[in-house]
Amino acid sequence: MKIATFNINGIKARLPRLLEWLAETRPSVACLQEIKSQDETFPGNEIEALGYHVLTHGQKAFNGVAVLTDGKAGFEPPKEIQRGLGIEGPKEGEGEQARYLEVDATGPDGTVRVACLYLPNGNPHPGPKFNYKLAWMAALRTRMAAIWAEEVPAVVLGDFNVIPEDDDVFSVRAMANDALMQPESRGAYARLLGDGWTDAVRTLNPRGGVWTYWDYQAGAWQRDHGFRIDHILLSPECADRMRAVGVDKAHRGREKASDHAPVWLELSL
DNA sequence: ATGGTCGCGTAGCGA
């Protein structure tokens, strides 16, 4: 089975590109971030027409995540396990932002726990938004420990908004003050790996230089000024079954593209 | 140091 993550940066602007990507690459499970839509107005019908089941966790205008499963390939609708991590947004009285959706994905070859996440950006640093990011990462670590304890095949993936190492960014100097690569952000990410989770995308090149995001500004795509912030973490039950991993880089170069490229993993399960 | 570009929703915030 193939499990993918794609920060689409707005479903209203991205629907044609999303449908195209689904049809061309046909992931068994697709995790979407930044749908920027409420559940009621998410265009599920057009995605279902391709044979996908759709589960959304959205909010108005910002954030929002979704999980799709390939009904045509014999996958059941995503079975919801948990939405949200119970962390209040950084603004007073704002409530919780829509950033986490955990499901069981069951297909012909078995069940995988899939946690789709959109981690807070955390800029500007320092400040309340950065503190919110760190609190969110602490809650994520707690939740991942609970998943670990279930000893099920599990994949935790999405836009982590963390550049893990210096060789995961086009220029350390250009990004030095960004929340995405502060020592606290990196430390929290490193603790997840220290807990035993495998960074699947890192295996593409252990020396770095793999990008999943290119800014819209300053000709970043044309200059290949990118960085790696979309990650796929595997429980031990999945790490042994990893068969292939990749970045659909060409999709970043298309008309009206997202600023992220899709990232995927093939499991022998 | 600044400005550079998008999306949502239709001003200004978030990235």
UniProtKB/TrEMBL annotation:
<feature type="active site" description="Proton donor/acceptor">
    <location>
        <position position="159"/>
    </location>
</feature>
<dbReference type="Pfam" id="PF03372">
    <property type="entry name" value="Exo_endo_phos"/>
</dbReference>
<comment type="similarity">
    <text>Belongs to the DNA repair enzymes AP/ExoA family.</text>
</comment>
<dbReference type="GO" id="GO:0006281">
    <property type="term" value="P:DNA repair"/>
</dbReference>
<feature type="domain" description="Endonuclease/exonuclease/phosphatase">
    <location>
        <begin position="4"/>
        <end position="260"/>
    </location>
</feature>
<dbReference type="InterPro" id="IPR004808">
    <property type="entry name" value="AP_endonuc_1"/>
</dbReference>
<dbReference type="InterPro" id="IPR036691">
    <property type="entry name" value="Endo/exonu/phosph_ase_sf"/>
</dbReference>
<dbReference type="GO" id="GO:0008311">
    <property type="term" value="F:double-stranded DNA 3'-5' DNA exonuclease activity"/>
</dbReference>
<dbReference type="InterPro" id="IPR005135">
    <property type="entry name" value="Endo/exonuclease/phosphatase"/>
</dbReference>
<keyword id="KW-0479">Metal-binding</keyword>
<feature type="active site">
    <location>
        <position position="118"/>
    </location>
</feature>
<dbReference type="GO" id="GO:0046872">
    <property type="term" value="F:metal ion binding"/>
</dbReference>
<feature type="binding site">
    <location>
        <position position="159"/>
    </location>
    <ligand>
        <name>Mg(2+)</name>
    </ligand>
</feature>
<keyword id="KW-0464">Manganese</keyword>
<dbReference type="InterPro" id="IPR037493">
    <property type="entry name" value="ExoIII-like"/>
</dbReference>
<protein>
    <submittedName>
        <fullName>Exodeoxyribonuclease III</fullName>
    </submittedName>
</protein>
<feature type="binding site">
    <location>
        <position position="34"/>
    </location>
    <ligand>
        <name>Mg(2+)</name>
    </ligand>
</feature>
<feature type="binding site">
    <location>
        <position position="259"/>
    </location>
    <ligand>
        <name>Mg(2+)</name>
    </ligand>
</feature>
<feature type="binding site">
    <location>
        <position position="260"/>
    </location>
    <ligand>
        <name>Mg(2+)</name>
    </ligand>
</feature>
<feature type="site" description="Important for catalytic activity">
    <location>
        <position position="230"/>
    </location>
</feature>
<feature type="site" description="Interaction with DNA substrate">
    <location>
        <position position="260"/>
    </location>
</feature>
<feature type="active site" description="Proton acceptor">
    <location>
        <position position="260"/>
    </location>
</feature>
<keyword id="KW-0378">Hydrolase</keyword>
<feature type="site" description="Transition state stabilizer">
    <location>
        <position position="161"/>
    </location>
</feature>
<feature type="binding site">
    <location>
        <position position="7"/>
    </location>
    <ligand>
        <name>Mg(2+)</name>
    </ligand>
</feature>
<keyword id="KW-0460">Magnesium</keyword>
<feature type="binding site">
    <location>
        <position position="161"/>
    </location>
    <ligand>
        <name>Mg(2+)</name>
    </ligand>
</feature>
